[in-house]
NADPH:quinone reductase (Chitinophaga arvensicola), 308 residues
Amino acid sequence: MKNLHIPAICVHEYGGPEQLQLQEVPVPVPAKDQVLIKIVASGVNPIDWKIREGFMKHPLPYVPGVEASGIVTAVGEGVFGKKVGDEVYGAVDGSYATYAVTPAELLFRKPHSLTFEEAAAMGGAKTAWGALFDVGRLVKGQRILIHAGAGGVGHFAVQLAYNAGAYVIATASAENIDFVTSLGADEVIDYKAAPFETQVSSVDIVLDTVGGDTTERSLQVLKPDGLLVSIVQMPDPEKVTAAGVRAQWGGTKTLAAMKEVHKLLDKGLIQPYVRKIFQPLSQAAAAQEYSKNGGAGRGKIVLKISEV
Ligand SMILES: NC(=O)c1ccc[n+]([C@@H]2O[C@H](COP(=O)([O-])OP(=O)(O)OC[C@H]3O[C@@H](n4cnc5c(N)ncnc54)[C@H](OP(=O)(O)O)[C@@H]3O)[C@@H](O)[C@H]2O)c1
């Protein structure tokens, strides 16, 4: 496929959704230990519009997107365990394109029980696993408050904490209470009806996936020496000390976390949910705006790029 060109979304300057330009780029060639995949669906994450707006100094130009599902179409030197035709999902930098390369070890076999759109939503599980277990050390019997239990990360966090035998309390809008309960939450708090800190107390761990004032308001619902794990922002350390609790950054993701998540998926113990599907690739701007504006629904936003 050398010298061929493929459609991709490119960002040349930081800014609004108009910076997402559909253009032709050379088809990437897999290097050592990489595979080339035909992308069927890309996950759409809040980090995508944050990078586009310049919150992180990502090198320009770039193709957005960090995760996808698709079909292996070429393998680089040294790749074991993946072959042309495999249906896969996992971490893929530059996933808003019809083809992309990624290290083979970051991809997992897509279970037949999942659609490609569902498989593209799995990245939130990896984040949730890292925050709950690698950082939070969550164990059976602990009380955990998970913010945004219907969100792309939160809906996995609720399922993972439930599977670990924790007592799970989650926040959600009224219309998502049934959904979050069905994922395994023991209690679901309508955070719009009253401040969550008036409805919950004495938790061992808070998983903050919301940020803003939710981060520091969460300090009051922890037990003494309880732990706030945030994947969005860190609270003022003086306020953490004054509250007699601890806080840690939870945004660390590892290959080990991906492997643990894949095992649970294979056993049918966790299930990805898709909030809304945008298609085709030219709808990338609409998908990012939906993510930024908190578009209604449950689970992850997905950009459908190709048919199988
Ligand atoms: N550091 C990392 O590695 C990492 C990785 C992934 C994500 N993140 C960050 O984590 C955050 C969440 O990501 P995501 O993909 O889960 O986002 P998302 O799917 O866009 O989250 C949307 C959810 O947030 C809920 N929500 C909004 N305001 C809320 C509030 N005040 N209290 C409780 N819930 C609220 C909404 O619930 P209702 O519809 O029920 O109201 C909605 O379900 C983002 O800021 C993202 O950038 C960080």
In short: The first strand starts at residue 5 and ends at 10.
